[in-house]
Amino acid sequence: MRFYNTFSKSKEEFIPQNPPTVSFYTCGPTVYDYFHIGNARSFIMADVLRRYLEYKGFKVKFVMNLTDVDDRIIKKSIDEKKPSHVVSDFYANAFFEDINLLKIKPATVFPKATQHVSEMIEMIRELEERGVAYNVDGNVFYDVSKFTDYGKLSGKNIEELSAGARVEVNDNKKNPLDFALWKKAKEGEPSWDSPWGKGRPGWHIECSAMSSKHLGETIDIHAGGNDLIFPHHENEIAQSEAAHNHKFVKYWIHFGFLNINEEKMSKSLGNFLTAREILKKYSAEAIRLFFLQTYYGGPLNFSFNLLAAAEKGVEKIKNLAEKIESEIKKDDNIGLVPDFNIKYYYDEFEKVMDDDLNTPQACAVIFDFIRSANKIISETESLHVSFFIDLKKFLTETAENVFGIIHFEELYKKSAQLDGKLINLIIDLRTKLKKEKNFLLADSIRDELNKIGIELKDGKDSTTYKFK
RNA sequence: GGCGCUGUACCCAAGUGGCUUAAGGGGAAGGUCUGCAAAACCUUUAUUCGUCGGUUCGAAUCCGACCGGCGCCUCCA
Question: Which end of chain A, N or C, is less surrounded by CB atoms within 10 Å?
Answer without folding.
Answer: C
